[in-house]
Amino acid sequence: MAMDHAGTGPSTRAVHAGEPPAELHGPVVNPIVLSSTFHGDPDGEGPVLYARYQNGPNHLRVAERLAALEGAEDALVFGSGMAAMACALLSLLRAGDHVVATDAIYGGTRALLSSELSRLGIETTFVDLFSDGWTEAFRPNTRVLVGESPSNPLLRVLDLRPLCDEARARGVAVIVDSTFASPINARPLEHGADLVMHSGTKYLGGHTDVTAGVIAGSAARVDEVRARARVWGPLLDAHAAWLLERGVKTLALRMERHNANGMAVARWAEGRPGIARVHYPGLESHPDHATARRVLDGFGGMIGIELPDGEAATRFVRALRMVKLAPSLGGVESLVSEPRFTSHAAMTPEQRAANGIRDGFLRVSLGIEDAADIIADLEQALAASMPHERRTDAAAD
Predict the structure, then answer these.
(1) How far is CA 145 from each of CA 74, 83, 154, 167, rounded to the nearest angstrom?
(2) What is the CA radius of gyration of the chain?
(3) Cβ-count burial of 173 within 10 angstroms (0-12 exposed, 13-18 middle, 19+ buried)?
């Protein structure tokens, strides 16, 4: 008999949600099913199972587990987070529609909205969702509000409930990218969002070995996304779906360590000579600290560190030993990236600076290593980033 997961904790749901009833001598671990198609009913009853429809055994198992974690009726997996966001937007928009989007947004999503959807006759207005006047951007043809929380890379945290209430009063659907939080630290559907999106490549997979995306929400909303996915074909293959499922099983456990390491490194970094500013919602210095304490169940494993300039950032990353310079985030290993060269490379330096991303900005993804070892590596890299005379002064201190 299958277990009823209503009321169970997140770790239990992460390990067991979506499991079929146990079979005598059956596998405990869901096997990888590499078949691209499946036998159909000659009477036409039941669904058509086909890998491109993303309804094979591996897709369905992990999608049900993710829906349970988000508190959603349904979920759908994709070949990447960008594929998930694209199909979610296409399910809600048509030519002539308008989008209001946070300007504190992932560079890929910004490019999708401003460069690609604009070619389809869909216009986007980017706004500061932390200002009082953002609602002035709504138009009669506004159909979607796009939020991201915590944001990439400044880690701004949205108070979603009033935003969602404002959008719902105008008949506008809300999509929230919750990649940096994971369902362990935040569940946007609980605050009124219509759809929540994740890059499964990050915390959900957790081991830097799979590229995936997720959309979760009501059955009706996800069905609309599914219809677009069947046409556009952003397939997640069965093996990748299996890796995603395996990663999700340890999500709650890993997030405990990511949260702890994030706080430890942020506290170490704040006030250090050579670091101009630290961005972490768990610090009282963060502009959204009060909101984060109220709406998040953990502050996460992402921090932003501002060094004085791009030259200091270059010296810093060259000196790293254990922490790796690489794009992406959310894996068991600590990574550092420079948004000017990765997530926000399409923006001009002036545009990045206007959005708080200066050339000395480093985005650090804290893995699950021992915090003391991460800090030791960052400490020596920070010393190497300083001009020689400042290094001598720091050593004297």
Answers:
(1) 21, 18, 20, 7
(2) 22
(3) buried
- Residue tagged 């999500």 (tokens): 251
Q: What are phi and psi of 382, to 5 degrees?
A: -65, -45
Torsion of CA 132, 137, 138, 142, to 10 degrees: -140
Which residue's entry shows tokens 């709650």?
252
Structural contact between residues 33 and 238, judged by C-beta atoms closer than 8 angstroms: yes
Q: Nearest CA to 211 among 203, 199, 219, 197?
A: 199
What count of residues does the chain have?
397
What pTM was computed for the model?
A: 0.93
Q: Residue 178: which domain range? A: 10-249
Rounded to whole angstroms, the Cα distance separating 65 from 56 reads 14
Give the max Cα distance, the chain.
82
Cα–Cα distances (Å) from 196 to 5, 76, 331, in that order, read 21, 11, 21
Convert the pLDDT of each residue in 331-351 to its tens digit: 999 999 998 888 777 777 888
pLDDT band at 395 (very low <50, low <70, confident <90, very high): very low
Name the domain boundary from 226, 249, 272.
Answer: 249
pLDDT greater than 60 at residue 310: yes
| Residue 390 pLDDT exceeds 70 | no
Within a domain: residue 3? no
User: Where is the domain boundary, 249, 265, 289?
Assistant: 249
Domain count, the chain: 2
Indicate whether 187 pLDDT > 70: yes
User: What pLDDT digit, counting tens, does each position of 347-368 carry?
Assistant: 778 888 877 888 999 999 999 9
Query: 83 is written with which tokens?
Result: 């594929």
Answer yes or no: are the C-beta atoms of 257 and 366 closer than 8 Å. Answer: no
Backbone angles phi, psi at 5, to 5 degrees: -95, 5
